[in-house]
Task: structure prediction
Amino acid sequence: MTAMIDVQGLRKEFGHFTAVNDISFSVEPGQVLGFLGPNGAGKSTTMKMLTGFLTPTAGRIHICGIDVAAKPVQAKKKIGYLPEGAPLYAEMTPASFLSFIGDVRGLKGADKKKRIEQIVEQVQLQDVWKQPIETLSKGYKRRVGLAQAILHDPEVLVLDEPTDGLDPNQKFEVRQLVQQMASDKAIIISTHILEEVDAVCNQAMIIARGRILANGTPKELLALSQFSGAYSILITSSLQSTVSASLQALPEVASIEAAPEGDELFRTTAFPAPDVKLHEVVSGLVHAHGWPALEIRRESGRLDDVFRQLTTEVGQGGAHA
Amino acid sequence: MRNVAVIFRREMAGYFATPLAYVFVVIFLVMMSVFTFYVGNFFARGQADLQPFFTWHPWLYLFLVPALGMRLWAEERKSGTIELLLTLPVSMLEAALGKFLAAWCMIGLALTLTSPIWISVNVLGQPDNGVILASYLGSLLMAGAYLAVCSCISATTRNQVIAFVLSVAACFAFLLAGFPLVLDFFRAWVPQLVLEGIKTLSFLAHFEAIIKGVIDFRDVVFFLSFIAFWLYAGAWLIDRKKAD
Result:
């Protein structure tokens, strides 16, 4: 078993409500898995079970081969966890808090001091080192939370919405930090910010209503988008109706979509029929007619489109699920 | 045990990082003095003992201990740090014990700071210091019993006010468990055997036995096992009901 995180048939019920419904997956070292899903999808509940905070109703979790239910303390030693909202002891300072975490993690003496210094450098806490945590800004609090999670250089890192509420610079820093650590760890990140998946994850999972709807690399997920394989032509408004009509007439084109861009321009998007590549057809058409196209663009899939497509399908199909 | 010490140190640091420790100790000492000197007529009795001092302990603890104990878990639930604490490699019982010992230590500290009254009584006369020492021990044990109940109740809620009110009520019931006030409540619907059991839970009966100067092994065992039971119950409750 090489997977650092191995989850089989995980299920969690709160009374009659099923928050997590039969989830299985595994994460290997070097993988950064992104949990995507609307609020209330079961992302946080899954993470709480992985880290041993909640007891699953059914299913097994192994962290580095250790059964979380049977040996919770051993499993927790392997994990660094940033809970949602990064809860911290407000009256402590980053210095006393990280010293406490170091003690709990079994770090001692010079070793502990060196490790804390390293982390402080890494997440840049020097300026607020001796201030009570309750007086810190959200960005600094999140950094203290991250520092706490990575202090013992864990093999498994679980981060619940690590960039939530941070400004763009701070988000960038957190993502960089995750990427730096990614090489030898198994990392799980939950988010509802889709750009994050592109930025840091090499594996992504879309979850809604406690089920896995899609699981693959970000590229594979993008391929699920209806925009994947579509081409669009940007052209002056006066030619728009001609272009639309010609595209629509092609047997390779399943449907088109036209939308104005600014005052004078129009973008016409052609979606391919099943198993058809459009690139030659579209460029041939433009050249044949000599249209003054300003741009011919291959549309890549859009993750938000896949996300909406998948998560709203569940909503409609929910009645018989 | 190493983890218990780590949790204990963090809790203690927490008490002194906020005004909590100072407010608690000062109020504790002021209340003790008021009751001993004004209500208990310490000087007018003309006797060299600390009877008027210790007599009030069960009643003062009724409010002071829940005030300290209400935050033990309710605060962790409210702020979400319970998730942080319980995903660290610490067992539930270690966490509960560390927190309990720190709060108990605070009470012990406040109790130690009442020692000037012990010194005064030695200056003024020849008290039986054995009895006084036994009484201090009994008082600390009783405070621990109160605190264990509070810790368990605090584990069930995220609201500190609820934890406080319920703790006062529960402590009051245990304080007077051997008295008609409590026994009459149960008499109608529990069997005689259970009623006898309830009677033996009375803090007041056990405490009064100790402050007479007789440290009966059974009274000490009663308090210690009472503490163990409620700590364990609290740990079990949190384990069952962590999410909310």
